[in-house]
Write a structure and sequence with these properties.
- With 158 residues, the chain is mainly α.
- It has one domain.
- Helix content is 77%, strand content 0%.
- The chain has 8 helices and no strands.
- It has helices at residues 5-22, 29-36, 40-44, 48-70, 72-79, 87-96, 103-128, 133-156.
- Helix 7 runs antiparallel to helix 8.
- The termini are close together.
- The mean pLDDT is 91.
- The chain crosses the membrane at residues 6-27, 48-71, 107-128, 135-154.
- InterPro entries: DUF1761.
- This is DUF1761 domain-containing protein.
């Protein structure tokens, strides 16, 4: 089983596209700015090229990670990493092959990852930063949508 690099590239772009919509002032951008304590002045500071460049690199890292989370065969392949010709791996692939390789299954696992990984991480940080639930839910909602779409792309694109 080889990585689908095109799916990873497309999935890595998803957080940028969804973020452009989600954090747009016409959608949730204004509410997020209030909840986070962000100001227009602060938004204009920083090098936007560097910010988006690093965001894209981090999104690629995330896409590689989500790939292993949504495709069960990756875990089986990791078990056989030292011996890809192992009979147990061959038997697993013969029996299960591409089972559960669908857009819906990937979306489900992306959403589960957001719920059980992103929400606790964001929530813990936000609580110690003294941010409110509105801040947590706006950011969690973004990652829920982003990881759901990323999971769908990575698992369904064969």
């Amino acid at each position: 089983m080889e990585l689908n690099f095109m799916a990873i590239v497309v999935a890595a772009i998803v957080p940028l596209v969804i973020g452009a919509v989600w954090y747009n002032p016409a959608v949730l951008g204004t509410a997020w700015m209030k909840a986070s304590g962000m100001t227009e002045e602060k938004m204009k500071s920083g090098n936007i090229g560097i910010i988006f460049g690093i965001t894209l690199v981090l999104s690629f890292m995330l896409a590689f990670s989500v790939n292993g989370m949504v495709i069960h065969q990756v875990a089986a392949q990791q078990l056989a990493f030292t011996n890809p010709d192992a009979e147990s791996f061959k038997a697993f692939m013969e029996e299960f092959g591409n089972m559960h390789r669908s857009f819906g299954h990937g979306a489900l696992h992306g959403a589960i990852g957001a719920l059980f990984f992103v929400l606790p991480v964001l929530g813990i940080n936000a609580l110690f930063e003294r941010k409110g639930w509105k801040y947590i839910l706006i950011n969690f909602g973004y990652w829920l949508v982003a990881l759901t779409v990323m999971g769908a792309i990575l698992c369904g694109w064969s």
